[in-house]
Design goal:
Length: 326
């Protein structure tokens, strides 16, 4: 029995390491066939010796039961939303207000604004225990079973920490195109965009459907006060989240001035179509947690962050068609 337990643990470790490399770092260590072979060996051993199954085993990602509904989850700290900026003036206003409040000695972190679904993930002693949607910001829906199917979400962290993190679940463009192609073949209604497809997938009561949708995530903050982890600012927090095993977005950039921010926005306005996922803007955050605390929040948004939204796509309107057919 000892040897079996050892092999189960070894397989669990290997599959966790290979899964992290493939789904979080996008740097596969082994061929898919090797991963699948090890996974099937673990599935077989766990079937034969159920006493060796652990909640963080990769075999636990796709649960069995179809849920009757979603439980409510009260967030430990409110999940707020970002205020928006639509042009350079809005951004310069944002910058001026911050300078008036805390002076000039601060820096920003710019991030791509992933066009997906906000989620909160809770870990106890390094084990994924619960995941929820934003909901109304105070109470969300428990979608743990569906989130477990997302391979980019680690079932176990590299350290046994108890932590809540926030991020965005999304459907990569390629998965979106494949999903709609399948639905077109079956005369099913198509999803309008990857964001709706991701939201629709995470609202499924049957985790097997969510598991089939190739969703991913980018984690971008902890819930609550970052300083409790002995970390002074947002950039270092993202590095810490990455060390814990979370997928964070590597396109982030520290910016000293609002002009640097505008340059970053210009770059990604042009480069956006080449990304493998949809973004609907750029998030600009004051880096220092102490300065974030000084700036505080309005009723619904942080004063230390803003979302610059890209102009809506120029959609060729039907008006043009009407003119042509007149
Ligand atoms: N969609 C995103 O890629 C994204 C979204 C948010 C938020 O919604 C958000 C909301 C807050 F109240 C505070 C910080 C935030 O940071 C964020 N950072 C991001 N990268």
């Amino acid at each position: 029995m000892e040897k079996i337990q050892q092999r189960v643990n070894e397989l669990n470790e290997l599959l966790h390491k290979y899964g992290h490399a493939y789904y979080v770092l996008d740097k596969p260590l082994v061929a898919d066939s090797v991963y699948d072979q090890l996974l099937h060996e673990l599935i077989a051993l766990e079937e034969q010796y159920p006493q060796f199954v652990t909640p963080d085993s990769p075999t636990q990602r796709v649960g069995g039961a179809v849920l009757a509904g979603f439980e409510k989850v009260a967030h430990s700290t409110r999940m707020l939303s970002l205020s928006n900026a639509f042009n350079e003036d809005d951004l310069r206003d944002f910058d001026r207000k911050i300078r008036q409040a805390i002076g000039d000695a601060f820096s920003y972190v710019c991030e791509l604004k992933i066009d997906g679904l906000a989620i909160a993930l809770r870990y106890e002693n390094g084990i994924f225990v619960q995941g929820a949607t934003r909901g109304d910001g105070t109470v969300g829906e428990d979608i743990t079973a569906n989130l477990k199917t997302i391979n980019a979400i680690p079932l176990r962290l590299t350290k046994p920490v108890t932590i809540e993190v926030r991020g965005e679940a999304f459907m990569p463009k390629s998965s979106f195109e494949q999903l709609n192609a399948r639905r077109a073949e079956q005369d099913e209604e198509l999803f309008a965009n990857p964001r709706n497809a991701a939201a629709g997938s995470l609202r499924q009561l049957d985790p097997k459907i969510a598991a089939s949708r190739n969703l991913s995530t980018f984690i971008y903050s902890v819930g609550g006060d970052g300083e409790q982890y002995g970390i002074s600012g947002h950039a270092k927090m993202l590095d810490y989240l990455s060390e814990l095993g979370f997928k964070t977005n590597n396109e982030r950039l520290a910016c000293d001035t609002i002009d640097d921010v505008l340059t970053y926005i210009e770059k990604w306005t042009d480069a956006r179509p080449n990304l493998p996922y949809e973004i609907d803007g750029i998030v600009v955050k004051v880096n220092s947690f102490a300065q974030q605390d000084e700036l505080g929040f309005t009723a619904k948004s942080p004063r230390w962050a803003i979302a610059y939204k890209f102009p809506a796509e120029e959609v060729m309107t039907t008006l043009l068609d009407i003119e042509l057919t007149v």
